[in-house]
Write a structure and sequence with these properties.
The structure is a single chain. With about 400 residues, the chain is of the alpha/beta class. It folds into two domains: about 140 residues, Aspartate Aminotransferase, domain 1 (Alpha-Beta Complex), CATH 3.90.1150.10; about 260 residues, Aspartate Aminotransferase, domain 2 (3-Layer(aba) Sandwich). The chain contains 13 helices and 17 strands.
């Protein structure tokens, strides 16, 4: 059955025909044939600017774009007008941060400073924008620490008070795969301060777990299409209507306006209000096909990934002087960071490359987390449903070869 399934996957993912073990899926996933075909078909048959022309192919392109918006909305159980397209998670979070800054007055309390709460395990995309917002506005920047003993973050609500304006945190670590109990964290935050604006980075999470915006009750949720088998250059922002309607836009230009006068302008309705300029219609439409492909068998894919993660942990733990970060009794996705004594992650990645085994080495855009772990970088393997046991065996062979070459026991 597995062989039959893999044959189908090789037909769907042409890149799998290459002699390689691709284990860097947390960085970006491979694209199924339907995504590539849709992208090509758009440019060959429907290429035009959306929301602009009154001719047939432009109207067709606009319809396809709005159908894609509905697909992404359905993927997370949201209303389609609550979906904003950006070029990435990074741009989406920056857009939220800058729109909040333009809309709300911070530090209007003469007694205590307003504050923003993030966690120590965040990707830079969900750390630096809030850090810089605090610097510009004189807010207190509060960081929820990672507990090395428990391999987990503290309860976020402990750092929330009546002056907490924003709490931003990941649903799943891109370094260790640690899955945060978002629902519980939000509930406890709301008890402390019902007005705190909550932003969730779901970039890694949506590739492995189902997400329902109504269950989480976050104010904003952000992720990227290229992590879920779509194209690069497409980010998705979900926002509650009350915020999308009241927030000032950050980007100005075509499509996002209702009227422009000499000295003043008014904005279009949501979601166009936040989509200034020419957006990547081809990428969005193609990426929606990737979501459909993935969503259709998501439960089965999650099981495959979980079994592969367990096998990878078993094989890696058998290697002398290899230390895995986390992956104890808590809930983790198929992302594993590790260190090998006396082998630099960059050296390991280079030798793995000689074996056509592709892993990630570095700080993973999470330097505060690296600092807490007392390392400058780690090796990281991350799996998708198209990976196989053979990929993990190839990884272990490459690691053992690296130990021989570098004369490490």
């Amino acid at each position: 059955m597995m062989n039959d399934n893999y044959k189908k996957l090789k037909n769907d993912f042409k890149i799998l025909e290459l002699d390689m073990s691709y284990l860097d899926n947390a960085a970006t996933t491979q694209k199924p044939k339907i995504v590539l075909d849709t992208l090509r078909n758009f440019y060959e048959t429907t290429n035009s600017n959306v929301h602009r022309g009154v001719y047939k192919i432009s109207e067709n392109a606009t319809r396809l774009l709005e159908d894609a918006r509905k697909t992404f909305a359905g993927f997370i159980n949201a209303g389609h007008n609550n979906i904003i397209f950006t070029k990435s998670t990074t741009e989406g979070i920056n857009q939220i941060a800058n729109s909040l800054e333009r809309t709300f007055v911070f530090n209007d309390n003469d007694i205590d400073k307003d504050n923003v709460v993030v966690t120590e395990i965040e990707h830079h995309s969900n750390f630096v924008p809030w850090q810089q917002l605090c610097k510009r506005n004189g807010l207190e920047f509060r960081i929820v620490p990672y507990n090395l003993k428990n391999n987990d973050i503290d309860n976020i609500s402990k750092y929330v008070d009546e002056n907490t304006k924003i709490a931003a945190f990941t649903a799943m670590s891109n370094v260790t795969g640690l899955i945060i109990d978002v629902d519980e964290q939000i509930k406890t935050i709301r008890k402390k301060n019902k007005d705190t604006i909550i932003i969730i980075d779901a970039t890694q999470y949506v590739a492995h777990r189902r997400l329902d915006v109504k269950e989480w009750d976050a104010d904003f949720i952000v992720f990227s299409a290229h992590k879920i088998y779509g194209t690069t250059g497409v980010g998705i922002v979900y926002g509650k209507s009350k915020f999308l309607e009241s927030l000032e836009p950050f980007f100005y230009g075509g499509n996002m306006i209702s009227r422009v006068d000499t000295y003043d302008s008014s904005w279009a309705q949501i979601p166009e209000k936040f989509e200034a300029g020419t957006i990547d219609a081809a990428g969005i439409i193609a990426s929606s096909e990737g979501v459909k492909y993935f969503q259709k068998n998501m439960n089965e894919y999650s099981k495959l990934e979980e079994n592969l993660k367990k096998y990878a942990l078993e094989r890696l733990r058998s290697i002398n002087n290899l230390h895995i970060i986390g992956h104890d009794t808590k809930n983790y996705g198929p992302v594993i960071s590790f260190e090998i004594k006396n082998i630099h992650p960059h050296d390991l990645a280079t030798i793995c490359d000689r074996h056509n085994v592709y892993i990630r080495a570095g700080h993973h855009c999470a330097q505060p987390f690296m600092k807490k772990l007392n390392v400058t970088s780690t090796s990281r393997v991350s799996m998708a449903f198209y990976n196989t046991i053979r990929d993990i065996d190839n990884l272990v062979d490459a690691i053992n070869d690296a130990k021989k070459i570098l004369q490490v026991k």
